[in-house]
Amino acid sequence: MGKHALPGTPPVPLRLRKSARARRISLRISQLDGRVTLTYPVGVPESEALSFARTKEEWIRQHLQDRPETAVVQFGQRIPIEGIVRRIVPAKGRRVQLMADEVAVPEGAEARRLARFLKELARDRLIGACDDYAAMLGRSYSTLGLRDTRSRWGSCSSQGGLMFSWRLILAPSEVLRYVAAHEVAHLVEMNHSPAFWEQVESIFGPCQQPRRWLRDNGAELHRYRFDAKPS
Questions:
Q1: What one-character DSSP code corresponds to residue 9?
Q2: I need a surface site. Which of 45, 77, 137, 147 has the fewest CB within 10 A?
Q3: Cα separation values, 2 from 18, 30, 49, 186, Å
Q4: Over the Cα atoms of the chain, what is R_g?
Q5: Cross-strand pairs, 84
Q6: What angle do CA 74, 78, 83 make, to 5 degrees?
Q7: Residue 31 · residue 9 · CB < 8 Å
Q8: 142 close to 159: Cβ distance less than 8 angstroms
Q9: pLDDT for 177-223, tens place per residue?
Q10: By three-state DSSP, how is residue 119 classified?
Q11: Which residues, in sequence order, are CB contacts of 92 under 8 Å at separation 6+?
């Protein structure tokens, strides 16, 4: 994978990726770290791929400019939990405590401790929601797992395995429950046909608002870094 850059102030680093599976030249900007990847088919010259990137320079720079600023998880930082913004403060005890406008975390590896707590909370909330919705449909799922996915908030396999982004715990509870309903509905309809959306609304109700929230605010959930050292 080659490394290049778009000239200008500042220059924009590009990661070039030649792919036998690619059918056209494409650009992708990571929501997590802003990395720009330029993918192109094997038969396309590198110079042509770079020329394509130059034609998209304005779009790339605008996208990077609009990308949410990274927030390192540390004491004093504010972070949304179930849609409520709370300040991270040192805990007096040895356990993470969730309060109205604060989350208290034991000192020492606080980012890792908070991430573990949030994943456990996400699992609890998602299991509760998925159990409710699966019972309403008279279906059952085989497994429920969590990942830190960037491209999707949830998925459902043909074997009935559910997978979710644990960062949904940062979103309002209604949004987390909508995503749970969406994936559980795939136990009945493995598509996005009108029949599928009927299943979603039969167990969740109108879903336009949480769908809009994810579209407008979802990228914000990826800006919180639990693996970076405080400056």
A1: S
A2: 45
A3: 9, 17, 12, 39
A4: 21
A5: 81
A6: 130
A7: no
A8: yes
A9: 999 999 999 999 999 999 999 999 999 999 999 999 999 899 889 88
A10: helix
A11: 104
Query: β-strands 2-6, 26-29: how paired?
Result: unpaired
The candidate with the shortest Cα–Cα distance to 90, out of 116, 72, 109, is: 109
Q: Which residues are CB-neighbours of 120 under 8 A, at least 6 positions away?
A: none
Written as one letter, the residue type at 101 is D
Q: How far is the C-alpha of 144 from the C-alpha of 166, rounded, in Å?
A: 11
How many Cβ atoms are within 10 Å of 86's Cβ, its own excluded? 18
Residue type present at position 91:
A
- In this structure, the strands spanning 102-105 and 143-147 are unpaired
Which residue reads 């036998």 in tokens? 20
| Token output for 92 | 């007096």
Structure tokens at 21: 């599976």
Structure tokens at 74: 């540390």
Measured CA to CA, the distance from residue 226 to residue 113 in angstroms comes to: 9
For residue 105, the number of C-alpha atoms closer than 13 Å in the C-beta half-sphere is: 24
Pair 87, 99: CB distance under 8 Å = no
Q: 């209604």: which residue's tokens?
A: 174
Rounded to whole angstroms, how far apart are CA atoms 148 and 201? Answer: 27
Q: What would the pLDDT profile of 151-177 be if each residue is shown by its tens digit?
A: 789 999 999 999 999 999 999 999 999
Match 């080659």 to its residue by tokens: 2
